[in-house]
Structures are given as C-alpha cells and as structure tokens.
Design goal:
Blueprint (H helix, E strand, L loop, with lengths): L1 E5 L3 H16 L1 H4 L5 E6 L2 H10 L1 E4 L6 E4 L7 E5 L18 E6 L8 H10 E9 L15 E7 L2 E6 L2 E6 L3 E5 L1 H4 L18 H11 L4 E4 L2 H22 L10 H20 L7 H12 L6 H7 L10 H10 L5 H11 L3 H4 L1
Parallel strand pairs: 1-2, 1-6, 2-5, 3-10, 6-7, 7-8, 11-12
Antiparallel strand pairs: 3-4, 8-11, 9-10
This protein binds NADPH dihydro-nicotinamide-adenine-dinucleotide phosphate and ketopantoate.
NADPH dihydro-nicotinamide-adenine-dinucleotide phosphate (NDP) binds next to helix 1 and strand 9.
Pathway: Cofactor biosynthesis; (R)-pantothenate biosynthesis; (R)-pantoate from 3-methyl-2-oxobutanoate: step 2/2
Family: Belongs to the ketopantoate reductase family.
Function: Catalyzes the NADPH-dependent reduction of ketopantoate into pantoic acid.
C-alpha cells in the first residue's frame, strides 16, 4: 500500500510524523517493502531541509521532542511537488510509483486546477483521495470519476518551522464517502466498522492511523461531521480574526456570545431550509471548543496575522452559498465574509 500525504504544513507534518514513527517500530510496516509513506511538500527547500534535518515532532507543547529521520525508515520518503526526482535519496530513484491513497492536507485555497492536474499524475484508476480541509466546497472541482473521500478532524497541529510540528490538541478523525458532498464516484464499500476491518485502502488507513495513536473512524454519515465542524469554524474563526482574540476570549462577554449565537442561529436556519441535518447540541460544542482551546489562535486569525489568505470563502462563504441555493438571506455570514475580505490589502494578500 502506498500513502501519499500532500502538504507539509501543520496537519501534513502531524499525520506524516505520527505514521512514520509508528511504522518505524511496527514490523508489519518496517518489514514490508510494499508499504510506502510519502510526504509531498510544496517547495524543494522544505523537502531538502527535512531530508537533511529530519522532523522534530512533539506530542504536546511541553512534551519531549522526537527526532524523526524519514529516509532511515523503510518505505518513508519526502519530496517536493516541484521535484520530479528524489535527489537527496538517490537510492529510491525517480518517483514514478502511483499512490493508492492520497491524504490531502493543503488548505482550501490551495486546491486549484494545477494541483488537480498534478494529483492526476500521481493516481492510478483505484486511487482514493481524502480531503482533510476545514470548510465545505460547493464547487465541482473534483473530476466526477475520482474517488474522493472526506476527512474531518478535530486534531490540532501547529507547525513551528518547516521541520518541526507540535500535536497541539487531541481529537478525532472521521473519514467517509464524499459522493454526496462532492458528486464524485466515491464508493464506501471497502471498509465497514473499526471492529470489522475488511481488506481495502480505507481500512488500511484507519488501521494505520489507529496504530499511530489517532482515534480514526469510518463515518457512514460524514455530512453531519462536516456540517458540525463547519458550524464551529463559521462561528469561532471570523470573530477571533476580526477581534484579534484567542478562542477562549470569545466567551469574555455576553455581547460577544450574542453575536456568536446569531451566527449559529443563522447557520442552522440555512441547514434546515436545505434539509441538512443539524443539532442544537452543536451550540454547546462551540462553547466547549472555545473553552478546550482557550489559548489557541484560530487558524483564521493566524492567517490574518501572517498576511495570508484565509479559508473564509469555504467556511462562512459556504453557508452564504447554501442560503442562496434556497433563496434565503444569511446576512451575518455575508458580513463575516465582507469584513474578513476587506481587511487591509496587505492582510488580505
Ligand atoms: N492545523 C490544524 O490543527 C488543523 C487544520 N485543519 C485544516 O487542514 C487544512 C490544512 O491546515 P494546516 O495544515 O493547518 O495548514 P498549513 O498552512 O500549515 O499547511 C498547508 C500546507 O499546504 C502546502 N501546500 C500549498 N499548496 C501546495 C501544493 N500545491 N502542493 C503541496 N503542498 C502545498 C503549504 O506549503 P507552503 O507552506 O510551502 O506554502 C503548506 O505547507 C486546512 O484546511 C485546515 O483548515 C483541520 C483541522 C485541524
Ligand atoms: C476549532 C478551531 C476553531 C480551533 O482553533 C479550528 O479548527 C481553527 O482554528 O480553524
């Protein structure tokens, strides 16, 4: 089995590091030449840096650093999308082998036609793609014939440098059939439950993630997980970015909580009109995430502070899109989009 992780950012480094560390000590993987784990970074500079320095991985902020030297682990490779030859690991030769499974850990704004074209060159006819992004895509970017699964994770990861990552929060990962969300040809017949593994790519991934220490589950109803996470992000992310506060500080006043509730009520009204399942319990989930990640800088605030583009179009913008689909208004979410987009030119760059 060959797993490609695309994106050497926070989430990509987290999944790669934990999987590689587990493969290193598990004879099922370290002995099996047929299994491959490949991290694809965007730049050659990052790939070279990792090949030279390895990855410094921490299981938590104050936890010891594990040094991981990918090329010393059988089957593990690191290369860049912009490289066609794995120069620093010449014994591995030219990377021509196609992936069986691609874990896509880039951000929503990185998914564009060039990346799709590059992915198509990494795929054989049965390759599965698992999208790990927050938010929701309502465009039809994925070619209809592709088997695209959806991953939703509440794990937290923070890249400290191109070669170091910390597992900043422990959560759960759900993987499910993306056909209803993406309109792709994804089929979900390969694995049943975590207890009843069947042979297949998804089952292999779930088993590998579990052995690596993640809580990973096959979801028969991935949509509910997607919309639950979408709601959490649509309430927390833009407000933390606009007010420049940590997640916990959202709960500091009744006035802030009232605005959060307005975003929540508007989102669930949009879901209701679209016949999308939702739960009142999600409101408590939002409050709980604020408490559990109180000192965290949300990803949107981090993007704004670092002058990067944000995922607003696929978070609040997705809710506005769903509202338009049933001809209703979602003014609070529209305002979030406009306010985030209209941050100064440098910030929105
Ligand atoms: N971090 C977290 O805790 C969580 C993140 N998520 C979601 O996961 C996704 C990724 O988040 P995160 O890891 O934090 O983001 P990062 O910005 O840390 O990582 C994204 C990575 O994708 C790389 N990239 C961009 N374009 C390409 C390309 N064409 N080919 C290969 N790599 C590319 C970037 O490279 P470069 O740096 O060189 O530009 C960057 O390293 C987001 O949608 C986020 O919302 C979900 C749950 C938790
Ligand atoms: C859940 C939350 C808000 C945690 O920070 C997150 O996913 C993000 O920052 O994007």
């Amino acid at each position: 089995m060959r797993i490609d992780i695309v994106g050497g950012g926070s989430l990509g480094l987290l999944f790669f590091s934990k999987l590689a560390l587990s493969w290193q000590t598990d004879s099922e993987y370290s002995g099996a030449q047929s299994h491959k784990l490949h991290l694809w970074t965007r730049t050659k500079a990052q790939a070279e840096y990792i090949r030279e320095e390895g990855i410094a991985f921490q299981e938590g902020q104050d936890q010891p650093v594990h040094s991981l030297v990918p090329h010393s682990i059988p089957g593990c490779l690191v290369a860049a999308v912009e490289e066609s030859v794995l120069t620093a690991n010449s014994d591995q030769g030219i990377i021509t082998e196609k992936a069986d499974l691609i874990l896509l850990t880039v951000k929503q704004q990185h998914i564009h036609s060039e990346l799709i074209q590059w992915l198509s060159e990494r795929m054989h006819k049965d390759t599965l793609i698992i999208t790990m992004q927050n938010g929701l895509r309502t465009d039809s970017i994925w070619p209809g014939a592709w088997q695209v699964y959806v991953g939703v994770t509440t794990e937290g990861a923070k890249k400290l440098s191109p070669v170091s990552v910390v597992h900043s929060g422990h959560g759960q990962t759900y993987i499910g059939n993306g056909a209803t969300l993406y309109g792709s040809s994804a089929v979900c017949g390969q694995a049943t439950t975590m207890d009843g593994y069947e042979e297949g790519t998804i089952a292999f991934l779930l088993k590998s993630l579990t052995k690596a220490g993640f809580i990973a589950t096959l979801s028969k109803d991935i949509e509910i997980e997607v919309y639950r996470k979408l709601t959490i992000n649509a309430v927390i992310n833009p407000l933390t970015a606009l007010w420049r506060v940590s997640n916990g500080e959202l709960l500091a006043s009744e006035a802030r909580i009232a605005i959060m509730r307005q975003l929540f009520d508007e989102a669930i009204a949009v879901y209701g009109k679209n016949d999308i399942g939702w739960s009142e319990a999600w409101w408590n989930d939002i409050l709980q995430v604020c408490r559990a990640t109180a000192s965290n800088t949300s990803s949107m605030l981090a993007d704004v502070l670092n002058h990067r583009s944000t995922e607003i179009d696929w978070i609040n913008g997705a809710i506005v899109g769903l509202a338009q689909r049933v001809q209703i208004e979602a003014p609070a979410h529209e305002w979030m989009c406009k306010l985030i987009e209209s941050l100064t030119v440098e910030e929105a760059d």
